[in-house]
Inverse folding.
């Protein structure tokens, strides 16, 4: 059973891409399971992925590193259900995945074939967090996520994003860089074939700084139901008007 761990900042495009990859692999005859992860409960990602994967397991209440045993149990359960591929999405505020998740899996769970660590990067966010105005600690966390990538997936290729190859190369010189879109499926085959020039090594990381950055971040999962007696145009509600 292959295991693909996907990291990257909040809103980078991880879930959108995972859904598209799950669909793509299913068409090729694979049985795909997805593991979603969040600090909170009731994940919208689980709901979104459930139509594309044959099984979705949610690990809540902490990231994969603090819920390592739950992750191993979810992988074992997927294997029993006959999954040939498991795609696991890490929490967007998480980094240091090689040391805390991939290395222990490689050492103790030899039966899983671990794919190169993929980190999704939104090119606009790359420019924002690379600028002088960016919050120092957030920029630190963001850089650390990229530094441990084997494969950097630059998302939203369908929206013609800015070219950030040089900025990413500066942080991850040996990583493979692939432009992808979770909307159109662009780059999926290239992602599956991508290998780093050299596998990434565990990060040297200042955990106090990392904790300060995590404390600044917040996100919400919600389902909103809109009703109006005489009906309405949903597009107008979602726009600025
Ligand atoms: N146009 C476009 N929108 C995207 C793409 N990837 C993600 N999005 C949108 O960006 C938002 C955040 O994406 P999501 O996959 O939930 O990010 P995650 O937090 O990294 O899992 C959603 O509204 C997506 O529809 C992409 O490749 N193209
Ligand atoms: Mg997500």
């Amino acid at each position: 059973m292959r295991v693909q761990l996907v990291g990257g900042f909040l809103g980078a495009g991880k879930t959108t891409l995972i859904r598209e990859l799950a669909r793509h692999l299913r068409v090729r005859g694979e049985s795909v399971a997805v593991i979603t992860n969040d600090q909170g409960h009731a994940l919208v990602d689980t709901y979104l992925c459930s139509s594309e994967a044959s099984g979705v397991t949610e690990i809540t209440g902490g990231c994969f590193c603090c819920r390592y045993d739950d992750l191993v149990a979810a992988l074992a359960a997927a294997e029993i259900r006959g999954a040939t591929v498991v795609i696991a999405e890490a929490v967007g505020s998480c980094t240091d995945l090689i040391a805390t998740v991939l290395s222990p899996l490689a050492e103790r769970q030899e039966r899983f074939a671990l794919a190169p660590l993929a980190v999704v990067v939104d090119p606009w966010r790359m420019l924002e967090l690379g600028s002088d105005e960016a919050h120092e600690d957030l920029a630190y966390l963001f850089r650390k996520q990229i530094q441990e990538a084997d494969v950097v997936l630059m998302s939203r290729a369908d929206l013609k994003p800015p070219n950030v190859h040089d900025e990413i190369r500066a942080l991850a010189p040996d990583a493979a860089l692939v432009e992808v879109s979770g909307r159109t499926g662009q780059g999926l085959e290239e992602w599956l074939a991508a290998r780093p020039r050299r596998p990434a090594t565990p990060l040297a990381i200042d955990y106090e700084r990392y904790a300060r950055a995590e404390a600044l971040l917040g996100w919400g999962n919600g389902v909103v139901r809109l009703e109006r007696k005489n009906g309405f145009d949903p597009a107008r509600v979602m726009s600025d008007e």
Observations:
- The first helix runs from residue 14 to 27.
- The chain has one domain: 2-238.
- Residues 14-15, 45, 89 surround magnesium ion (ligand 2) (CB under 6 Å).
- The mean pLDDT is 92.
